[in-house]
Amino acid sequence: MSFGKRAIVALVAGLLIATATVSTGNAAAKPAATSVRFGIQDEATRFVVELSAAVGFHIFTLPDPYRVVIDMSEVAWRLPSETADTGNGIVSGFRYSLFRPGTTRIVLDVTKPVRVKRSFLLPPSDKQGHRFVLDLEPVTTATFDDEARLAAIATPEFRPDIPLAAIATPEFRPDIPVVKPPAPAGDAPHVGRRVVVIDPGHGGVDPGAIGSGGTREKAVALAAALEIKEQLEATGRYKAVLTRDRDTFVRLRDRVAMAREAGADLFISIHADSIGSSKVNGASVYTLSKDASDKEAAKLAAKENKADIIAGVNLAHENPEVTDILISLAQSESINEGARFANMLIGELRRATSTLQKSHRSAGFAVLMAPDVPSVLVEMGYLSNPTEEKNLKSKAHRRKMAAAVVKAVDSYFAHHDQLSRS
């Protein structure tokens, strides 16, 4: 058996171990990851995670940039406070977080093409507990491409929450209308309420922008989204749905799918930017357009659309023309309605906080591409500005911004109600 085929077999074996070791019933306490370490032997780099119990795992590699992704059963991270996120050998760094309920994702950034030489679990021995061990070795670009392609075909995505037979689920098709099932009886209190989907940007292994003081975009976006949800539902007029309610990763297309499946009347994605200058500050609102309104909008959209790549999502099977298809399918009415709401929102934000001089911009943001839901992306400010970073960490400031969002939502639907009566 060739070494490349042995690597594929190792990946499949890892998936089978995952299936065997993850309980489908009520699990006890999650396994804990208590330390990580790297070792070097010749050209190979070893990555070890100390664990309190056995876990299942699935490994794959990604190019542009080169990364190794480890999906394992959900673990509680209890690493010593002095643990650095830097690597060793051919690993330049690593990051980890909850990828979805039941799955922890670890992403290793590597400096060159690599292959998985070995991956296995060691049982407890002497004074050591369970250990996950991964050995990586450098390969040529051609070898990397060939083995990554074979691995993508041979191994399905790791899903510890479902049986293997159920993995082959249909892809989200934005061109197919969502058929909404009848609401269950328990959902009766929401009857007559407008549905507003609030999307806290980034999350999990994707921190988003990093502020001058170390504040992570994913944290302030979630805090702001939770405040907006609370204020919207307090009016009694809206059902607010979050695309995530904790620090977990959600793919861009899944955020769009959630909005459509929820029957959203409005979609609001919450973000905070960071740039090279510490002087720039102010909120802004973005809407969908195939042609960016300016270079800054195009640059921001390109950065935001790479969120899935940062989090280690394999986009090999994505249609490269999906952006053009989605935008061409998007009803002009939805885009126009998104722009109408954006203008109302900017007016309210100007009363609550500072805004950019050119505060309404547009570009091809993937997260705004639901063809039948008016959508906007709100940049609450710049984490690279120390004053604005402090404001975005302030609950009082976030409460004021949330109130502005609620007023704009009220104005938007009041306009619709007026049109329907005329």
Can you describe this structure?
- This protein has 422 residues and is of the alpha/beta class.
- It folds into 2 domains: 3-160, Immunoglobulin-like; 190-421, Zn-dependent exopeptidases (Aminopeptidase), CATH 3.40.630.40.
- The protein has helices at residues 3-21, 141-154, 217-234, 252-261, 295-304, 307-310, 322-329, 332-352, 386-392, 395-421, and strands spanning 32-41, 44-51, 57-62, 67-73, 76-77, 91-100, 103-110, 114-122, 130-138, 194-200, 238-242, 266-273, 283-288, 355-363, 375-382.
- Helix 1 packs parallel to helix 2, helix 3 (217-234) packs across helix 10 and helix 8 (332-352) crosses helix 10.
- The longest helix has 27 residues, at 395-421.
- The protein is elongated.
Topology:
Layout (H helix, E strand, L loop, with lengths): L2 H19 L10 E10 L2 E8 L5 E6 L4 E7 L2 E2 L13 E10 L2 E8 L3 E9 L7 E9 L2 H14 L39 E7 L16 H18 L3 E5 L9 H10 L4 E8 L9 E6 L6 H10 L2 H4 L11 H8 L2 H21 L2 E9 L11 E8 L3 H7 L2 H27 L1
Helix pairs in contact: 1-2, 3-10, 8-10
Terminal-residue CA separation? 75 Å
**Arrangement of strands in the largest sheet:** 11-10-12-15-13-14
- Cα-atom radius of gyration: 23 Å
Q: State the CATH superfamily name of the largest domain.
A: Zn-dependent exopeptidases
Query: How would you sum up the global shape?
Result: elongated
Whole-number mean pLDDT = 79
Tally the helices: 10
What count of structural domains? 2
The tally of beta strands, per DSSP, is 15
Structural class: alpha/beta
**What is the H/E string?**
HEEEEEEEEEHEHEHEEHHHHEEHH
CATH class term of the largest domain: Alpha Beta
Contiguous uncertain segments of 5+ residues: 1-27, 161-189, 316-327
Q: Beta-strand level of the residues, as a percent range?
A: 25-35%
